[in-house]
């Protein structure tokens, strides 16, 4: 069922709750692909009822970012959700979520000062505001987020802790194209040449993994190897390449002694893509 009204979605969930049913939630910005589908499939397996939101959230886009251009196809998205077995596709209007005075903000400090947070000022405030609204409206038992946006997972977990949401966050693995490119709604922006060039992201992460597999533990050497891999691609412009603690996202410069997150953000032409791996040191 496609539901636009907040009141209606609340009533549906109230009814489910009165029947003792569990509720899973998958927030998305639409233009659904296999990455989103994997989150929805898992939610359908683990919950009696599933809500997916499709909302291109204006407050998480910077003034020079791609809010207008972001791909939108609600008809197709609805078909994908129905096929997967999602029960309600929630598509609120921005006017019903936001008010002109913008009185309330949700800011998670620390974790949002680095990586995408420092490159996209205000981005995580927008994400946290809209996700906290959805959590209040839907009050799910479990909610599903992709590891492709690893910093988003860390930030949302912190918000759930700090605001006492009684919701389990379920991080889901990155789904990739056959050649390694992480699935992303923004991949549609890529020209044929750029699509080939975009492989530099997964290639540089694979090279980091094989360097670690050989026993290298110096984070600076690892970073240098990844940078030199990416700069060989003329269409690529590095936004960041980091080696960070997988929990608190602090940069690591010296010896890697425990599990690390290796997140990267690279412009391919005008399109900014992100990817990462988690490497466990046993
Ligand atoms: N390749 C993927 N594998 C697993 N989860 C994914 C993947 N791509 C997106 N997701 C997850 O789907 C949810 C909704 O993401 P979103 O709608 O922003 O899609 P997206 O493809 O990440 O778009 P973009 O990166 O262009 O903003 C997020 O939790 C995100 O991490
Ligand atoms: C969680 C989210 C749907 C909030 O708009 C968005 O940041 C996304 O798609 O990852
Ligand atoms: N998946 C993250 C949404 C964004 O880039 O705004």
Key terms for this structure?
Pantoate--beta-alanine Ligase, Chain: A,domain 2, 19% strand, Pantothenate synthetase, Rossmann fold, four-stranded antiparallel beta sheet, six-stranded parallel beta sheet, Pantoate_ligase, alpha/beta, binds beta-alanine, 10 helices, binds pantoate
Structure report:
The chain is of the alpha/beta class and 282 residues long. The chain has two domains: 171 residues, Rossmann fold (3-Layer(aba) Sandwich), CATH 3.40.50; 90 residues, Pantoate-beta-alanine ligase, C-terminal domain (Pantoate--beta-alanine Ligase, Chain: A,domain 2), CATH 3.30.1300. Helices cover 38% and strands 19% of the residues. It has ten helices and ten strands. It has a six-stranded parallel β-sheet, with helices on both faces. Strands 7, 8, 9 and 10 form a four-stranded antiparallel β-sheet that branches. β5, α7 and β6 form a beta-alpha-beta unit. α6 crosses α7 and α9 packs antiparallel against α10. It is globular, with a radius of gyration of 19 Å. The model has no long low-confidence stretch (mean pLDDT 98). The structure holds adenosine-5'-triphosphate, pantoate (PAF) and beta-alanine (BAL). The site of adenosine-5'-triphosphate has 18 residues, from α2 and β5. Keywords: ATP-binding, Cytoplasm, Ligase, Nucleotide-binding, Pantothenate biosynthesis. Pfam families: Pantoate_ligase. Pathway: Cofactor biosynthesis; (R)-pantothenate biosynthesis; (R)-pantothenate from (R)-pantoate and beta-alanine: step 1/1. Catalyzes the condensation of pantoate with beta-alanine in an ATP-dependent reaction via a pantoyl-adenylate intermediate. Its EC number is 6.3.2.1.
């Amino acid at each position: 069922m496609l539901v636009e009204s907040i009141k209606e979605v609340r009533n549906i969930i109230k009814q489910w709750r009165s029947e003792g049913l569990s509720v899973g939630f998958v927030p998305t910005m639409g233009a659904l692909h296999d990455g989103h589908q994997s989150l929805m499939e898992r939610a359908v397996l683990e919950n009696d009822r599933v809500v997916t939101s499709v909302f291109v959230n204006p407050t998480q886009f910077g003034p020079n970012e791609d809010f207008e251009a972001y791909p939108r196809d609600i008809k197709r998205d609805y078909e994908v959700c129905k096929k997967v077995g999602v029960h309600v596709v929630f598509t609120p209007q921005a006017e019903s979520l936001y008010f002109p005075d913008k009185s309330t903000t949700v800011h998670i400090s620390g974790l949002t000062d680095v990586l995408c947070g420092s490159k996209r000022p205000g981005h995580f405030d927008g994400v946290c505001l809209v996700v906290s609204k959805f959590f209040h409206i839907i009050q799910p038992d479990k909610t599903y987020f992709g590891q492709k946006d690893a910093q988003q997972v860390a930030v949302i977990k912190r918000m759930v802790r700090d605001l006492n949401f009684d919701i389990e966050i379920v991080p889901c693995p990155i789904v990739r194209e056959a050649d390694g490119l992480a699935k992303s709604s923004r991949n549609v922006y890529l020209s044929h040449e750029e699509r080939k060039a975009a492989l530099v992201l997964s290639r540089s992460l694979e090279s980091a993994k094989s360097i670690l597999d050989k026993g290298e533990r110096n984070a600076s050497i690892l970073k240098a190897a990844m940078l030199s891999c990416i700069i060989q691609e003329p269409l690529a412009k590095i936004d960041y390449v980091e080696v960070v603690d997988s929990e608190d996202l602090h940069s690591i410069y010296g010896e890697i002694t425990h599990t690390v997150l290796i997140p990267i953000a690279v412009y391919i032409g005008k399109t900014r893509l992100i990817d990462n791996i988690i490497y466990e040191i046993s």
